[in-house]
Amino acid sequence: IRLDPHWNGGHYDDTHYPESGMRMARKLGVITYRSALEWDGRFGRVRLDSEQAADDPFGLEFQVESYLEGHARRFVRFFDPNCYLYLSRSMDWFDLA
Fold first, then answer.
1. In contact, 69 and 26? CB cutoff 8 Å
2. DSSP type of residue 46
3. DSSP bridge partners of 53
4. For residue range 15-53, what is the model confidence (pLDDT) as tens digits?
């Protein structure tokens, strides 16, 4: 999020919102919330249908990529980026002991 060009030290607005940083953060979060076994069972290495796949050789190719991108796009405006960073940091620092 902080590497997004629109981050602006946390002083962003609706016209200059760190959307790409939020999408990437959400994808990384979703990946870590689930186990490798779950990902493999759900998607394996199944490719997108030819109608769904991008013509771009570096575009979406696998179903899991499409799932993560769709999840990230739906999420991006539900959380404020500063809030997301602070929640993430608080989970890192939390120690029940």
1. no
2. P
3. none
4. 999 999 999 999 999 999 899 999 999 999 998 887 666
Task: State the CATH number of the domain containing residue 19.
Answer: 1.10.1740.110
Q: Is residue 1 a part of any domain in this protein?
A: no
End-to-end Cα spacing for the chain: 30
Dist CA 45 CA 17 (whole Å): 33
> Residue 89's domain spans which residues?
8-93
In a domain, 24, yes or no: yes
Longest CA–CA span in the chain (Å) reads 52
Closest CA to 82 of 28, 17, 32, 35: 17
pTM: 0.81
